[in-house]
Amino acid sequence: MLQIALPNKGSLADGAGRLIAEAGYSCERTDRELVVLDPDNDVEFVFLRPRDIPVYVGGGIIALGITGRDLADDSEADVHELLALGFGRSTFRYAVPTESSRTPDQLAGCRVATSYPKLVRDDLARRGITDARIVRLDGAVEIAVRLGVADAIADVVQTGRTLIQAGLKLVGEPIMASEAVVIARDPDARSVAAVNSLLERLQGIVVARDYAMVEYDVPVKHLDAACRITPGIESPTIAPLSDANWRGVKAMARRRDVNVIMDRLATLGAKGIIITDIRTCRI
Fold first, then answer.
1. What letter would DSSP give residue 151?
2. Domain that holds residue 132
3. Domain check: are 82 and 97 in the same one?
4. pLDDT higher than 90, residue 283
5. Looking at residues 94-101, what average pLDDT do you find?
6. Cα 83–88–90 angle (5° rounding)?
7. What is the CATH number of the domain that holds 143?
8. What does DSSP say about strands 133-136 and 111-114: parallel, antiparallel, or unpaired?
9. What's the pLDDT score for residue 174?
């Protein structure tokens, strides 16, 4: 039976639960169970703190896990990223008091508060800074400067509003970009049939979330121009209509582009332009 670790709380838990369910697995908890069995797929889901998941996976106790890339990298566990999942996106950044002119390259001798000591230690080392003191905190890192225990912080940032409220500003480029990822101890874990099936299902949903299906009718004289607007993945599907002067076209397109695509198709004289969601796909 394949064991998979899922986050037990927070935004990562919500996103992972939805994705796994959409992939056809049963992982719903009726209460606060730590383990949920899916006998139909021969899978056992184990619910753990997101920060602990790399430890269990890296120790070979659980085959796969879903957690944040930042948590996996900070854990120092022997794990490998198999698939990025497209949710839980954030950046890991330095922040200093609003009135400060200090940059990340000027943190020598400073106290840096963080919940991710390895990420900060590695980044400071890349900058040649060896005498900064890392103050490890388990949460509420943004208040550390105001309380006098740090001169700067390094933390996960999504909107940055909490930092502004704490009198801080972001400085420097992101140390790393994070999102939810599937991790395994074995970089070749995909060679296991059950693992490969899971990854294929998840990837199909992740890709589908970025795409939509565009369908429309277009005059034959504008067909080539329309196909250049909607080239699809390999090529668009073209079907004859009862009116020989028209063709029906269907193609996948990036979701972020669909409004511009509709505008351009309408300018060509296309009719019946429809955008539909794609639940999953294999490309």
1. S
2. 90-177
3. no
4. no
5. 95
6. 105
7. 3.40.190.10
8. parallel
9. 94
pLDDT at residue 131, as a whole number: 94
What is the Cα–Cα distance from 76 to 5, expressed in whole angstroms? Answer: 18
| Token pair in block for residue 254 | 């990036």
Q: What is the DSSP letter of 192?
A: S
Measured CA to CA in angstroms, residue 122 lies from 83, 95, 119, 126, 188 at distances of 24, 17, 5, 6, 27
**Residue 183 and residue 67 share a domain:** yes
CB of 82 closer than 8 Å to CB of 182: yes
Do 130 and 141 fall within a single domain? yes
User: Tens of pLDDT along 130-175?
Assistant: 999 999 999 889 999 999 999 999 999 988 888 988 999 999 999 9
Q: Is residue 205 part of a domain?
A: no
Coil, strand or helix: which one is 241?
coil
Residue type, 130: T
Which residues, 6+ apart, have CB-to-CB distance to 275 below 8 Å?
212, 213, 214, 258, 262
185 and 243 together in one domain: no
CATH number of the domain encompassing residue 215: 3.30.70.120
pLDDT at 25 (0 to 100) = 95
Mean pLDDT for the stretch of residues 39-59: 96
The reply to whether 103 and 82 lie within a common domain is: no
Same domain assignment for residues 99 and 237: no
Residue 101 CB-half CA count within 13 A: 0
CA distances from 227 to 169, 170, 213, 261 (A): 47, 44, 14, 11
